[in-house]
Amino acid sequence: MPVLTLREAPPERLDFLAVNPLALSGLSQGDAERLVVGTTRRGLVLGDCFTVALDGSDTLTIAGGHERLDRVGAAMSEGAIRVEGDVGQRLGAGMAGGSLTVTGNAGPFAGSGATGGTIVIEGDAGDHAGGAVHAAKVGLDGATLVIRGSAGDYLGDSMRRGLIVVERAGAFAGARMIAGTIAAGTVGDHPGYGMRRGTLVVGGHGSLMPTFVETGALDLVYLRLLAKSLRPVSARHADLLANAPNGVPKRYSGDLATIGKGELWVAA
Amino acid sequence: MAAWVKGGATDADAAVMAAARLLSSAHAPVFAGLNAEVAAIRAAYDLAGRIGASVDTAGGDATYADLGALARVGAMQAPPAEVAGRADAVLVVGEAPLKSPLVERLRGTKPVRGRAAGAERSIHHLRSNQDLAVQIAHLRAHARGHMTSDAGMAETARAMASALYGAVLYDPGELGTLGIEMLQGLAMDLNESTRCFALSVSDGTQDRAALQVAAWTTGQATRVGFGRRVPEQDPWRFDADRQARAGEADAALWLASLPTPRPTWLKTLPTVALVGADAAPDLAEVVIRVGEPGRETGGVLWNEGRAGLSYRAPEQGADLPTAADIIARIAAAVAGRGAVAGRSAVANSEDA
């Protein structure tokens, strides 16, 4: 298993776009150590910050993460990366396949534009997790993003496809959502701001938008199917639908400022 | 010329050399403020490209709130002169736009051209008694006919829909990207049946001049970094305040030949400050007094009324250098030290 071991805290933000199992599998030890990862005129290379040990397999371990490691697993299409520690912005951005696990916290824009694969953040995620970066049309776009801790504001902003499962999220979760599903233990104020379509399933929430209207407590077959698909990812989130504390969950429809075809299911 | 290095008065040459020394020995310098005339902003971009600095502006958050919405959904935007000349209904969103002299001008005049010429002008106000972005969404839901529950919102929506030429004034920093995108959606919805345009009220900085320079220099907006030689735009990474807080920037050039609120990091980060009349010895490690464009020196500035760049002649003669001159002298001194972007160049400058 290839292992990159962080020797000391990086003096600047590092860009890991070119560091993934597939890219490393074709490189010699020396070539891998000479991969440019610096973002300032220092011109740092991988070997400046990490001890590199390669064996050609498709699972890369980054032993010792740091909040300055940007774009870890970005554009990855196969294989697996496990980061023991924190990462910076754009974790798994544009990822098409494979799996990505971070044992610590992630910076903003985790999973932005990811079309496939699974991203698991065992700690917290910053703002815009599964959200769109500047000028991008969409956020998460088909991948599965699991956040075991808290996410910041704007979770799943402009998300178009895929699934986000999170324990707690900040304000404006699911803002400008185009489609896809977010399941959250709790969300902050104004979930679903400007959403067009898509599904939010929450255990609790802050202030609701005045442009969401309650459409009843409904027991739909679709909810049981959704719960079934959530269960392998998180039984607790599946139970929000299948075993809601107050019986069947309440459904709100919105955002009526747009076409209003989104839905917010509240279990509590 | 007034100049100070570490609080002590010095001459121009010594200050320029100190500035060049400070900037050329840095690994990740930040150029911030850019509240200055176009020539100075151009010179700053040139120097930033040479030494691998990143660039941000004094009003970066507000600028990117506007740009974020523009890049996603476009904009129905009108300049102030058009709004004053044509609008028969104006909606002021939030409190910040009320500080603009444009609002008083709109209150005191009538539309004089276009479809609404000669009509009375009605001014409506959306107060920020709760989240403004949420209120705009609420208004848009009423304008689309999806909601009728709030009488005030319904009345405002009716007034804008029945106008011949509506205008919506907002402050991008107060409203934020989500609210601006919603507001642009409202303007686009209204344009299905009448005319309606948004007008982003500037915070008075030269951010829009910097945007023009950034566009023709890099093909991108501000918040660009040259650390990897090619310009990279990343509004999160190159936010100067964030870089200073995170300890990523190791030196700064603060360019503010016009009066500008100062960031808190100015005294904690090794900084070269090029400032106008509010220059003071303890402002930064190196402080150089430059002429204020439009008052002490001539310069091309953003003209808010015309929404374009125009030359402003000095109001009074002053024996002060322009910020562009000083930056060009710093650039020449930096080049003399061999400090241009790249790993070996930094190593060389460290050896020196």
How are the SSEs ordered, and which strands pair?
The complex is a heterodimer of chains A (268) and B (352).
Chain A: E1 3-6, E2 14-15, H1 21-25, H2 29-33, H3 46-49, E3 50-53, E4 59-63, E5 69-70, E6 80-84, E7 99-102, E8 118-121, E9 141-150, E10 161-168, E11 181-186, E12 199-204, E13 213-217, H4 221-230, H5 235-242, E14 250-254, E15 262-266
Parallel strand pairs in A: 1-4, 2-5, 4-6, 6-7, 7-8, 8-9, 9-10, 10-11, 11-12, 12-15
Antiparallel strand pairs in A: 1-3, 13-14, 14-15
Chain B: E1 3-5, E2 8-9, H1 12-24, E3 29-32, H2 38-51, E4 54-55, H3 60-73, H4 80-86, E5 89-93, H5 101-108, E6 122-126, H6 132-143, H7 151-162, E7 166-170, H8 172-190, E8 196-200, H9 207-218, E9 224-225, E10 232-233, H10 240-245, E11 251-256, E12 271-275, E13 286-289, E14 299-303, E15 308-312, H11 323-336, H12 343-351
Parallel strand pairs in B: 3-4, 3-11, 5-6, 5-7, 7-8, 11-12, 12-13
Antiparallel strand pairs in B: 1-2, 1-13, 4-9, 9-10, 14-15
Structural features:
heterodimer, A: 268 residues, alpha/beta, 15 strands, 28% strand, B: 352 residues, Rossmann fold, Dimethylsulfoxide Reductase, domain 2, nine-stranded mixed β-sheet, four-stranded parallel β-sheet, 12 helices, disordered C terminus
Summarize the structure.
Chain A contains five helices and 15 strands.
Categorize the overall geometry of chain B: elongated
Q: Which pair of protein chains has the largest interface, and what are the residue counts? A: A-B, 34 and 39 residues
Number of discrete domains of chain A: 1
Main β-sheet, spatial strand arrangement of chain B:
2-1-13-12-11-3-4-9-10
The total beta strand count of chain B reads: 15
Q: Structural class of the secondary structure composition of chain A?
A: alpha/beta
Share of helical residues of chain A:
10-25%
The proportion of residues in beta strands of chain B is: 15-25%
Order of helices and strands of chain B: EEHEHEHHEHEHHEHEHEEHEEEEEHH
- What is the makeup of the main sheet of chain B? 9 strands, mixed
Straight-line N-to-C gap of chain B: 29 Å
Protein name (chain B): Formyltransferase/hydrolase complex Fhc subunit B
Organism (chain B): Methylobacterium hispanicum
GO molecular function (chain A): formylmethanofuran dehydrogenase activity; transition metal ion binding
GO biological process, one term (chain A): methanogenesis
